[in-house]
Specification:
By secondary structure, the chain is of the alpha+beta class. It is 32% helix and 30% strand.
Length: 177
């Protein structure tokens, strides 16, 4: 339990891996959507702004409301699944899911997400660096918590039958190392 702290940086590694896997899944899903989506002309008929946070942490997300006509001739008005900087009245190509036409995005916003993977990789790298640093600092070479030097400096006590049993060395004992 005393060596539990040295494994704490592995939490960074785990979180980083989860971030990377989640982003990869999102990119794969986005590409799958783009492959099956229909592309049609559309227009931004409104912009819906939602706010999250408070005070200096208040953030606004603007999602365009897209109006377009499907390949089958149905007129659809729906809020985009992504945020965008498009303003009201802007014409844009729209990608929509033919099975669910209300799932639509401006074509220019359909890809992306690759840059965010870098964040996950950085978190993994930081975790591994901290783990390596803690491991080197503690002198541990494995899960037992004892490195080669620790095993050589173990103390022994001679038993009544003449055998020797390992014991913890007294903390003030100078082993001359």
């Amino acid at each position: 339990m005393e060596n539990l702290f040295q494994y704490f940086p592995l939490l960074f590694v785990a979180v980083g891996i989860l971030i990377v896997l989640g982003l990869i899944a999102g990119i794969v899903g986005s590409r799958r959507f783009v492959r099956r989506a229909q592309r049609v002309p559309g227009v931004v008929s409104d912009v819906r702004t939602t706010f999250t946070g408070q005070g200096e942490h208040l953030r606004a997300r603007q999602r365009p409301v897209l109006t377009f006509t499907t390949v089958e001739g149905r007129e659809i008005t729906t809020e985009a699944a992504t945020t965008s900087g498009l303003g009201v009245g802007n014409e844009t190509e729209v990608l929509y899911d033919p099975r669910n036409p209300t799932r639509a995005v401006p074509a220019a916003d359909a890809g992306g997400g690759h840059g965010a993977i870098v964040v996950g990789v950085i978190v993994v790298a930081i975790g591994l660096a901290f783990f390596a640093g803690f491991t080197a600092f503690s002198g541990s070479s494995g899960p037992s918590g004892f490195g080669e030097d620790d095993r050589q400096s173990q103390c022994e006590m001679q038993q009544a039958d003449g055998s020797f049993a390992p014991i913890d060395c007294p903390p003030d004992l100078d082993l001359g190392e």
